[in-house]
Amino acid sequence: MTADIDPVLHAPARLQIAAMLARVDDAEFAIIKDVVEVSDSVLSKHLSALSEAAYITVRKAKRDGRQRTWVSLTPKGRKAFAAHMKALHELVAAAQHAVAAE
């Protein structure tokens, strides 16, 4: 394999978050929470890990009289996600090749 699995993105919830954010400009915290099916505190921890790696930006804004949180992938995050997906594809291809050779 030539590509490396990214330990920041390897956690299933973080991978789901990155996959979701790769398709949109940004997403609201509540929507991400519903899609990933985790609690507020668990999502916050995953977002903190992604933010510390500079893979996402988090912005807060008032909307409909409430404070809301919006999350988006940074260019670094998009690049890391693409590289991680490449590594996963290579891993699957190698496994399929090994199984087919048996």
UniProtKB/TrEMBL annotation:
Listed Pfam families: HTH_34
Domain Winged helix DNA-binding: 14-92
Residues that span the membrane, as ranges: none
Gene3D superfamilies xref list: Winged helix-like DNA-binding domain superfamily/Winged helix DNA-binding domain
Classification via InterPro entries: WH-like_DNA-bd_sf, WH_DNA-bd_dom, WH_DNA-bd_sf
Protein name: MarR family transcriptional regulator
